[in-house]
Design brief:
Distance between the termini: 58 Å
Order of helices and strands: HHHHEEHHHHHHHHHHHHH
CATH class: Mainly Alpha
Strand order of the largest sheet: 1-2
Helix content: 55-70%
Radius of gyration: 20 Å
CATH topology: Ammonium transporter fold
CATH architecture: Orthogonal Bundle
CATH superfamily: Ammonium transporter AmtB like domains
Number of strands: 2
Number of domains: 1
Number of helices: 17
């Protein structure tokens, strides 16, 4: 059965048909969505993370997120886009990677279209996704990883791990998980599971911060974190709404669910803290918002109001468990809870998509749910997708880490640098207390 044609044209611009006509409304929406997603990383995520770190490392934290964006975007243009959305030389390769024919956007002209808007806009939109994915992982290793190692890791990881995962899920006909019918509207597996798991792997490989669980590690500014969460939420309307690839009814549905799910998730987190700790915190409310956004991302354009509310609420519970319980039991130092919030809530959202997706949704691509209404079959496809992405990310991140470490002479800062703080030791700067 032929794949959903419009999506295939968007994902495979080289196959666009002659009758493709630029639509100014879709073009404007996709350009604005790309700008919104861009705003999420060097502003939203950077502030969200910086506020949670200690004052002696706040500038380094911001620099890691900002550098992740700029390095990742260049790597995306150089090779990532081609690997993710190009066409491989053989069918067997096409299952995992898209080839290198579009390196540095070779073969793509400024006036080429992806459906109803310029291909260059699609390239930028998807590049912002690549950048925020690797930036998410930085939250697991702030305050102790070498800045040089981080830069090298980002450049390699985007090409070697992120791009193949993107291809397998969103790469169109011939791609492993796309052909299987895996549903991921805006990046539950591609972005959040991918980035969150990479963060956990890095946390184990780099090791715990000096004094972890022995000395207080208080956030510099919860206000900055709350502001960052608000900016993330604002940008997420482009993240999810733009994934409808046009100014259409599906974008409207994604807009609604992107507003509703994190609202329910924030309320849920507040109630959990009230019950467990007797004090609801602003940090908890902000974390609940992000957990709800993460959880709804793979399902944003597929579910209705009821599904969005359940996904948001359960996503908050799952993330709260990861942050408050799982991390303590397993003993890992995930500095800013990238794994607890992004991976676990993303995992739940990916699986929940099969449970709550509307069968008559026009954007569903071929799979058990669309073809025969088989929810259990769709659920098993979703399980397959999270397992494949999890294994690929785990192995790929380990390999890239050791390569980056070898190229930079070790991955961890020395004891004195960690004690003094990376702001002054690495960057020669010091943040004012806010």
């Amino acid at each position: 059965m032929k794949k959903y044609l419009t999506l295939a044209l968007m994902l495979l611009p080289s196959l666009a048909l002659a009758e493709d006509v630029l639509d100014t409304g879709d073009t404007a929406w996709m350009m604005m969505s790309a700008a919104l997603v861009l705003f999420m990383t060097p502003a939203g995520l950077a502030l969200f993370y910086s506020g949670m770190t200690r004052s002696k490392n706040v500038l380094n934290t911001y620099a890691m997120v900002l550098s992740a964006f700029v390095v990742a975007f260049v790597a995306w243009i150089a090779a990532g886009y081609s690997i993710a959305f190009g066409t491989a030389e053989s069918a067997s390769m096409q299952t995992v990677v898209g080839g290198l024919s579009h390196m540095f956007l070779n073969g793509i002209n400024w006036n080429d279209l992806s459906g109803t808007y310029p291909t260059y806009v699609f390239v930028v939109f998807q590049g912002t996704f690549a950048a925020i994915t690797v930036a998410i992982a930085s939250g697991s290793v702030i305050e102790r990883i070498k800045f040089s190692t981080w830069i090298v890791f980002v450049a390699i990881w985007v090409v070697a791990v992120y791009a193949p995962v993107t291809h397998m899920v969103w790469g169109g006909d011939g791609a492993l998980l796309f052909d299987a019918g895996a549903l991921d509207f805006a990046g539950g597996t591609v972005v959040h599971m991918n980035g969150g798991l990479a963060g956990l792997v890095l946390a184990f490989l780099v090791g715990k911060r000096a004094g972890y669980n022995k000395v207080a590690m208080k956030p510099m500014s919860v206000m900055l974190t709350a502001l960052g969460a608000a900016i993330l939420w604002f940008g997420w309307f482009g993240f999810n709404g733009g994934s409808a690839f046009g100014a259409n009814a599906i974008a409207g549905l994604a807009y609604l669910t992107t507003a509703l799910a994190p609202s329910v998730a924030a309320i849920t987190w507040i109630l959990l803290e009230w019950f467990v700790y007797k004090k609801p915190t602003l940090l908890g409310a902000a974390s609940g918002v992000v957990a709800g956004l993460v959880a709804i991302t793979p399902a944003a354009g597929f579910v209705d109001v009821g599904g969005a509310m359940i996904i948001g609420a359960v996503g908050s519970v799952v993330a709260f468990f990861g942050v408050a319980t799982l991390k303590k039991r397993l003993g890992y130092d995930d500095s800013l809870d990238a794994f607890g919030i992004h991976f676990l809530a993303g995992l739940w959202g990916a699986l929940a998509t099969a449970i709550f997706a509307l069968k008559d949704n026009d954007l569903l691509w071929d799979g058990p749910l669309k073809e025969s209404g088989d929810r259990m079959g769709q659920f098993m496809v979703q399980v397959e997708s999270v397992v494949v992405v999890g294994v690929f990310t785990l192995i790929g991140t380990v390999v890239v880490y050791y390569l980056a470490m070898a190229l930079t002479g070790g991955a961890r800062v020395d004891e004195e640098t960690e004690q003094v703080g990376l702001d002054e030791s690495v960057h020669g700067e010091k943040a004012l207390n806010i």
